Amino acid sequence: MNMKKIIALCSFLFICSFAGVAQKFALIDMEYIFKNIPAYEMTNEQLSQISQKWQNEVEAIQQEAQNMYKTYQSDLVFLSAEMKSKREEEIVKKEQDAQDLKRKYFGADGELYKKRESLIKPIQDEIYNAVKEISEDKGYQLVVDRASAMSIIFASPKIDISNEVLLKLGYSK
Question: Does the global pTM surpass 0.85?
């Protein structure tokens, strides 16, 4: 029994020690903020158009490779071994060209990633600076993004500063 009392007393003292150092927290919802910034929506539309254009280019080359293969199959009986080999190499090269272009545009460090980074990063930086200013003004030690924090089960709307961030950026809500 004494051990349980000691553990309970230590736990109580531990919890009370944190109460003396009250920390202020706030939440933001980046998805909500982004949806209310017209420049972000325009940027997404622009990226979507670029992505579709590049996808069409890749698909055109893939279609060429498919057409080359169909022609090769229909001509197969008329081709010498050397001609077969040459045509197969051309088809493989065309397929490789399509894969290379796809990787160039859509790969991990591809053109789409770079374009997205160059267009969206300035908007993200503005949001970060607004959050930082609000945090410094109001004494928040931690600001969590509700949209990306999967472990938040409930958060009081009173600590959500998303509208303040939008106001700071010049977008009234």
Answer: no
